[in-house]
Design the sequence.
């Protein structure tokens, strides 16, 4: 739900109403959940293009006035940054430019460390001489003479260069040397704190305050066998509908906040479409087979079975997924992964389609979900999920176990989220160890002054396990594909819930993934490593979090 302390203003509502009036010209009224005063004349292409440009202008105006997101959770503190730029009309060696800029930054840092230091003079456009109160010994005078000689050489060599050093800071006491500035950020002086980062995973788009309670979101299309297109409802919204936009799919699968459309053999594009609501609450019910994992085979009992929502809720959606095309044999199946019935999901045996005999791991069955809207105060949520947030830690202090969150003994980990430091930098990663989500932070790189925190999503009624794929020294190849496939101890394929990557050398980022990435298929995580220089440290680990049937 939207943060209670935040509400739209009269000015925001006015701008949104203007945008809606423009949309009425080009979008069917039923898609806006509101009657429009004007209808589109499909023959008037020129007017359509004009209206489209007007929509863009109206959106730009809203984002300019109100921003794109509101972030109720932020990181407070301070930062101080020095930057140097180099310009020259003549070509110079890269190493010479680097040395000059390094010296310029060192001089600026030294100046900031002495309260009584003053800077004056010019050198190729760069202010670089310093005067500090006090007297010099003979040795100091000799060192000064040597320094001045070097400066003269550099002056001649870079007479056409222009170097500028700038500094900027946010938070902390102004006009103080670095040591005192750091002290000014102590807990006892929190009035000096400023917003330096935001919890992006908790930010809410300003469009959430528009006069609309539903969102239609789409996953990234895919076209390989068993591939996944996933659409995820944002924070504050509940999933209320899910379908595959292409009829050539193996069906759809739903979770508490996501909609998966699964591709089939043939190379046809498939894309997931999720409808999300901020006014409804829903719960997902799944039918598992105790003997054959998450695919139910009515042939086991040779009789129909039903999948119904718990008391206090009503069925709004029934979904079906089967890699063996069994869903297409189910009555009322609409080729988009859904069975449109409000009375419960009843599946009849279909002879050999639901053959009770099968080889290990070759189940010819279906995975079934019911999406239930909560109508009473509460229901028996099948997931019974809770969120456990670990202790936050700062940069290099984030040792192995300090950056973690652990589910209780009665719970299983069904997901991990980074709730601080989501913009992971070089050498950072995430993985699961038993009932614990563990983040890894290197002691060098851009993350030294950032806060990190991880949250574990835990379930009392679901079971999970982990599959690892470890590869080191991949520099000898042009790129190695790592696989983590979900196969339980009975040899039965099961669903992958989330994929994780960890490499102390930053190779997860080199491969184009964050520490948590989407599965490649419904049962497998896949990652192709990037080409590394000969002899480079190339250790990398990927992990699949798999759901085990009861």
Sequence:
């Amino acid at each position: 739900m939207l943060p209670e302390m935040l509400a739209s203003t009269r000015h925001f509502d006015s701008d949104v109403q203007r945008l809606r009036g423009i949309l009425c010209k080009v979008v069917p009224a039923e898609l806006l959940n509101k009657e429009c005063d004007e209808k589109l004349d499909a023959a008037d292409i020129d007017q359509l293009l004009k209206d489209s440009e007007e929509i863009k202008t109206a959106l730009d105006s809203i984002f300019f006035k109100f921003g794109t997101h509101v972030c109720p959770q932020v990181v407070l503190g301070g930062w101080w940054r020095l930057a140097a730029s180099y310009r020259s009309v003549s070509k110079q060696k890269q190493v010479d430019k680097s040395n000059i800029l390094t010296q310029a930054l060192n001089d600026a840092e030294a100046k900031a460390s002495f309260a009584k230091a003053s800077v004056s003079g010019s050198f190729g456009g760069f202010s670089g001489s310093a005067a500090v109160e006090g007297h010099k010994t003979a040795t100091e005078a000799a060192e000064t003479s040597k320094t001045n000689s070097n400066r003269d050489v550099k002056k001649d060599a870079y007479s056409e260069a222009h170097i500028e050093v700038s500094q900027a800071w946010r938070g902390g006491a102004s006009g103080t040397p670095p040591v005192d500035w750091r002290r000014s950020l102590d807990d006892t002086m929190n009035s000096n704190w400023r917003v330096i980062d935001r919890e992006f995973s908790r930010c809410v788009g300003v469009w959430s305050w528009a006069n609309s309670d539903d969102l239609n979101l789409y996953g990234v299309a895919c076209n390989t066998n068993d591939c996944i297109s996933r659409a995820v409802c944002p924070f504050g919204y509940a999933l209320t509908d899910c379908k595959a936009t292409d009829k050539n799919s193996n069906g759809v699968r739903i979770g508490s906040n996501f909609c998966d459309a699964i591709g089939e053999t043939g190379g046809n594009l498939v894309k997931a479409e999720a409808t999300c609501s901020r006014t409804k609450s829903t719960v997902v019910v799944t039918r598992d087979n105790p003997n054959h994992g998450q695919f139910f085979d009515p042939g086991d009992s040779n009789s129909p079975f039903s999948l119904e929502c718990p008391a206090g809720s009503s069925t709004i959606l029934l979904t079906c997924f089967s890699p063996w095309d069994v869903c297409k044999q189910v009555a009322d199946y609409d080729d988009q992964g859904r069975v449109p019935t409000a009375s419960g999901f009843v599946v009849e045996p279909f002879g050999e389609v639901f053959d009770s005999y099968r080889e290990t791991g070759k189940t010819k069955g279906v995975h079934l979900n019911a999406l239930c809207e909560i109508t009473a105060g509460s229901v028996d949520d099948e997931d019974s999920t809770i969120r456990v947030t670990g202790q936050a830690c700062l940069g290099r202090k984030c040792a192995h176990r300090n950056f973690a969150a652990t589910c209780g003994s009665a719970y299983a980990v069904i997901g991990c989220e980074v709730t601080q430091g989501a913009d992971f930098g070089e050498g950072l990663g995430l993985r699961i160890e038993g009932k614990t989500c563990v983040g890894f932070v290197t002691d060098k790189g851009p993350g030294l002054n950032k806060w990190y925190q991880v949250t574990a999503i835990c379930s009392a009624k679901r079971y999970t396990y982990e599959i690892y794929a470890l590869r080191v020294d991949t520099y000898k190849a042009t790129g190695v594909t790592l696989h983590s496939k979900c196969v339980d101890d009975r040899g039965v394929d099961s669903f992958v819930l989330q994929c994780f990557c960890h490499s102390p050398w930053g190779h997860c980022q080199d491969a184009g993934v964050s520490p948590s990435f989407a599965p490649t298929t419904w049962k497998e995580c896949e990652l192709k490593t990037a080409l590394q220089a000969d002899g480079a440290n190339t250790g990398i680990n990927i992990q699949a979090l798999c759901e085990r049937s009861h």
In short: The two ends are 32 Å apart (CA to CA). Residues 144 and 150 are 10 Å apart (CA to CA). The chain has a mean pLDDT of 69. The longest strand covers residues 79-88.
